[in-house]
Design goal:
Layout: E1 9-13, H1 18-22, H2 28-44, E2 48-52, H3 62-76, E3 100-105, H4 114-119, E4 124-129, H5 136-139, H6 150-170, E5 173-177, H7 190-200, E6 205-208, H8 213-223, H9 254-257, H10 262-289, E7 292-296, E8 302-306, E9 317-318, E10 321-322, H11 323-331, H12 335-348
Parallel strand pairs: 1-2, 1-5, 2-3, 3-4, 5-6
Antiparallel strand pairs: 7-8, 9-10
Helix pairs in contact: 2-3, 2-12, 6-7, 7-10, 11-12
Length: 350
């Protein structure tokens, strides 16, 4: 019998702000509904899913919805003793086979009920993430009051970055859409930081760009051809067309940030510059390998038209994903099409 194939782990990242999403005529409920529907489809295809969230957040019960989706998926499968057609099954003693992996950043991770976690053994692995290079004993001395303590918000921002680093290391593919732009809790807008970390690791990322938010701003930027340095002005810098909305200021917290040293501020700025550079290079690679041209039909619906002159380029890939798949995803506005394209990308990586 051939060895079992490890299920691919797919990171799902979404969310957003009601006011920012309203620019696209969307609400947070639309973003979360797409998350649940996509999760159900990927679970049916035997993929594992990773996501950030908290069981205790009553205002955003997305984690509960995803757990319910996994429970429904498990109840519809054959009895555990039978293996499926690919020789895979959920093993209670092996979390790498469980359908869900939940990341929870400090201090929210402290509020998760251990008994609830125990009841979800075999369904969801819970990964508590604390700030890098900080022990549990150290954190126990600090306040967890995010509303009133800027120092707690600083440690929470550090934990969010570490959470995204860890999830990037673990995931085989990241799929993003929506996402808060301003007043995010980390040092950068969350989806921007996740896309940067994924590209830094040269791992595949799929940006569903038609649902507004941070992912929408990134998609618009990636669709725009790079600005080259003018030939007649060799000493002039290239035009920086980076979206003004995606910046360090978008996540600024004056009280929290006042605790930073000058060296720490310089590090954040250098890291943001590295983020822009990585995404700018990714855009250049997309357009260099682009087998398509943008074509907006009278109906207003955008689509990509394949260049029949060079059919070989249709199969070009960046970080494992077909360029045509990446570009198609940037334009998708329909949830059904988004699910289809996300599934297509995941299956293609197997």
């Amino acid at each position: 019998m051939p060895p079992k194939q490890r299920p691919l782990l797919i990171g799902l990242s979404a969310g957003g702000d009601k006011i920012e999403l309203a620019e696209q005529g969307l609400g947070l409920e639309h973003i979360e509904e797409l998350m649940v529907r996509l999760a159900m489809r990927l679970l049916q295809l035997e993929f594992r899913l990773a996501f950030g969230g908290n069981l205790v957040d009553e205002e955003a019960p997305l984690t509960e919805h995803l757990i319910n989706a996994a429970l429904n998926w498990q109840s519809s499968r054959p009895i555990p003793s039978k293996q499926d057609s690919r020789g895979e099954t959920v093993e209670v003693n092996n979390p790498s086979t469980w359908p869900l992996l939940n990341y929870s950043a400090w201090p929210h991770s402290l509020k998760t009920d251990p008994q609830r976690q125990a009841r979800l053994v075999g369904v969801c692995e819970f990964q508590a993430v604390r700030p890098k290079d900080t022990s549990e004993a150290e954190l126990a001395r600090f306040s967890t009051d995010l509303d009133n303590d800027p120092a707690a918000r600083r440690r929470n921002a550090d934990a969010l970055t570490e959470m995204r680093v860890q999830s990037t290391e673990a995931c085989d593919l990241r799929i993003v859409w929506g996402g808060r732009i301003r007043k995010s809790k980390g040092w950068l807008p969350g989806i921007l930081e996740e896309v940067y970390l994924t590209l830094q690791k040269k791992k595949p990322v799929l940006i569903l760009g038609g649902f507004g938010g941070c992912a929408g701003k990134l998609a618009k930027y990636l669709r725009t051809p790079p600005c080259d340095k003018p030939n007649d002005k060799p000493n002039e810098k290239p035009v920086d067309d980076w979206p003004n909305e995606l910046s360090l200021d978008a996540s600024a917290d004056n009280l929290r940030d006042s605790l930073l040293t000058e060296a720490e501020r310089a590090y954040l700025h250098s890291r943001f510059d590295a983020c822009k550079t990585a995404i700018r290079e990714y855009r250049a690679n997309l357009h260099r390998a682009n087998p398509t041209t943008l074509d907006r039909k009278p109906s207003g619906r955008a689509k990509l038209v394949e260049d029949s002159k060079d059919p070989v380029t249709r199969h070009r890939r960046i970080h494992g994903l077909r360029v045509s798949t990446i570009l198609d995803a940037l334009l998708i506005e329909n949830p059904r099409d988004a699910i289809r394209k996300a599934v297509e990308a995941a299956v293609d990586l197997r």
